[in-house]
Amino acid sequence: MTRSMTAFANCSDEQDWGTCVWEIRSVNHRYLDIQIKLPEELRSIENNIRNRFASHVKRGKLECVLRCKPSQNQQTEICVNEDYASAIIRACTSISKTLHQPSEMNAIEVLKWPGVVEASQVDFTQLARGALNLFDSALESLCETRQSEGVRLQQMLEERLLAMRQIVKGERQRRPQIVQQTRDKLIKKLEALNASYDKDRFEQEMVYLAQKMDVDEELDRLESHFTEIEDIFKRDEPVGRRLDFIMQEFNREANTLGAKSTDIETTQASVELKVLVEQMREQVQNIE
């Protein structure tokens, strides 16, 4: 089963503990490259996220971003250091007794004093747990997108594979005709020159020329690669690298077919094969 390396997933959730939004982008890459951006308060879940990625994705460059906001109930709680505030009030009262015209002290001034109001301690435990649960949903959505895109890529590859099969089949059927055409062409040239020739030697040269023109081995290898690709499509594992290697083999055989060509039809067949191989190779780059 083929899976694409290109996908996107976005999941958000709002609960009593706060709001979380996950965004995951996946593009093609030779290896597995994971980039994670988390709030500093939730850095503790990074290794957990990497492990979950590794268990579901084998290749691709992944960019993962988490945006979180704790609930207002936690953020608006005010913690006052009452002991410290009482000490300040006592000190101000004592000093006021020594002043001729002391000014009145109010609660706002006491709260403004550094250290009286302490930052509220937000409990990020529930937020981290909720973020991980939401991440599982985002990862599932990403994998579903990669799989559906992989199915579409496989269909495109199968269409081009069928076209290549037709070309190879046509070339195999034409081989006897090509040898006969080459033989007739040489005989006509000799007759046009009114030159006498040794028929035995001519047959020997025809055998040598037929060997140079023989592409049965290349056509056999192409058909072998067709069968291998069909087998690869059935595997439940990453197959992108293996397909990329077969694309190189396809291109090599198509080049050899063109190099041995002695007629325009074979040359055109070689070009058509290379065009199809290039189209397939571009799609294979996106397969995991």
TrEMBL record:
InterPro entries: YicC-like_C (IPR013551), YicC-like_N (IPR013527), YicC/YloC-like (IPR005229). Signal peptide: none annotated. Its cofactor is a divalent metal cation. Residues 3-154 form the Endoribonuclease YicC-like N-terminal domain. Keywords: Endonuclease, Hydrolase, Nuclease. The keyword Nuclease applies. The keyword Protein biosynthesis does not apply. GO terms for molecular function: hydrolase activity; RNA endonuclease activity. Residues 173-288 form the Endoribonuclease YicC-like C-terminal domain. Belongs to the YicC/YloC family. This is Protein YicC.
